[in-house]
């Protein structure tokens, strides 16, 4: 019977990592094979692999855009279906990835997804065989050496002639599974004005285009920690260390990106509560930027090849 037959996709990897910015990244190749398992003799009119990149945005019309489409035919559509005897048939394929493809994104503003399907068609009303897999497209805009040795975050200045501040972190680039250590320095110009509490918050800011041309923006708090001001002196500055814990669900944190469908960046807000005696005087907020890279892409680049999962036989195209 036809339902005893099956088709399946096997990919060398279900994640593609693009290296570099959209306008400079070289392309990559998605490699895999189609496995057609025939238990009962049957007729098939075509065997194809279809790869699609689809963007969705509820604020645009149309709200679905198939921005990338590739098709590989192993058996072209024919009027007289080809007879397949019981056996296992393997078809290898390669699909090119341009370096400017947008990253996989799951956001309430916009989504970008990639799917690959293998289809064996029969003539008439007979049910087709189909298998579909999702492919992730990730991006690292910086080489891993630059990520690991990126410059430190250092920002300083004065606020309303009342105090000087300094913010320091060992890096400006982090992944969602990293803790972020920060040191905040404050030097009050007024002896009766003191810091009482400090709060550090990271916001993820996503923007997507809309039909009227005005971008839709979503600002999401992804990390926050606070501490009473309990400092040590370092020259004129009083230094308060604080640590933003790693995100528990790293997949919900997007890496920084900028493409036609969605842009994402991250803001670090440092809030300092100032008191005069027992009275709250004011709360000041200092804003700066941090960059988040994709943790999964970073792990894929750092890991050694897994030869056990490589193809048993070389591709035959």
UniProtKB/TrEMBL annotation:
It holds the Pfam family Arrestin_N. Residues 26-139 form the Arrestin-like N-terminal domain. One of its GO terms (cellular component) is plasma membrane. InterPro entries: Arrestin-like_C, Arrestin-like_N, Arrestin_domain-protein, Ig_E-set. SUPFAM superfamilies: E set domains (SSF81296). GO terms for biological process: ubiquitin-dependent endocytosis. It comes from the Eukaryota. Gene3D superfamilies: 2.60.40.640. One of its GO terms (molecular function) is protein-macromolecule adaptor activity. This is Arrestin-like N-terminal domain-containing protein.
């Amino acid at each position: 019977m036809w339902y005893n037959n099956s088709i399946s996709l096997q990919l060398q990897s279900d994640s593609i990592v693009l290296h570099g910015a959209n306008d400079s990244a070289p392309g990559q190749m998605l490699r895999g094979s189609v496995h057609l398992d025939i238990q009962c003799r049957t007729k098939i009119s075509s065997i194809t692999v279809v790869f699609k990149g689809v963007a969705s945005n509820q604020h645009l019309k149309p709200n679905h855009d198939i921005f990338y489409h590739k098709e590989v035919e192993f058996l072209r559509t024919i009027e007289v279906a080809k007879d397949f005897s019981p056996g296992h048939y393997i078809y290898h394929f390669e699909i090119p990835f341009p370096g400017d493809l947008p990253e996989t994104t799951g956001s309430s503003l916009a989504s970008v997804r990639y799917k690959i399907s293998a289809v064996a068609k029969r003539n008439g009303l007979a049910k087709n065989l189909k298998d579909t897999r999702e492919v992730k497209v990730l991006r690292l805009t910086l080489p891993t050496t630059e990520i690991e040795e990126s410059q430190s975050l250092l920002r300083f200045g004065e606020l309303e002639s009342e105090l000087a501040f300094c913010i320091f972190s060992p890096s400006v680039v982090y992944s969602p599974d990293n803790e972020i250590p920060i040191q905040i320095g404050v030097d009050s110009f007024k002896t009766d004005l003191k810091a009482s509490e400090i709060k550090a918050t990271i916001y993820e800011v996503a923007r997507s285009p809309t039909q009227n041309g005005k971008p839709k923006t979503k600002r999401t708090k992804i990390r926050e920690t606070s501490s009473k001001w309990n400092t040590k002196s370092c020259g004129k500055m009083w230094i308060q260390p604080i640590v933003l814990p790693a995100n528990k669900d790293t997949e919900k944190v997007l890496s920084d990106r900028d493409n036609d469908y969605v842009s994402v960046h991250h803001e670090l807000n440092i809030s300092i509560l100032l008191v005069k005696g027992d009275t709250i005087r004011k709360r000041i907020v200092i804003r700066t930027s941090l960059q988040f890279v994709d943790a999964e892409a970073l792990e894929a680049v750092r890991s050694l090849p897994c030869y056990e999962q490589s193809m048993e036989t070389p591709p035959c195209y």
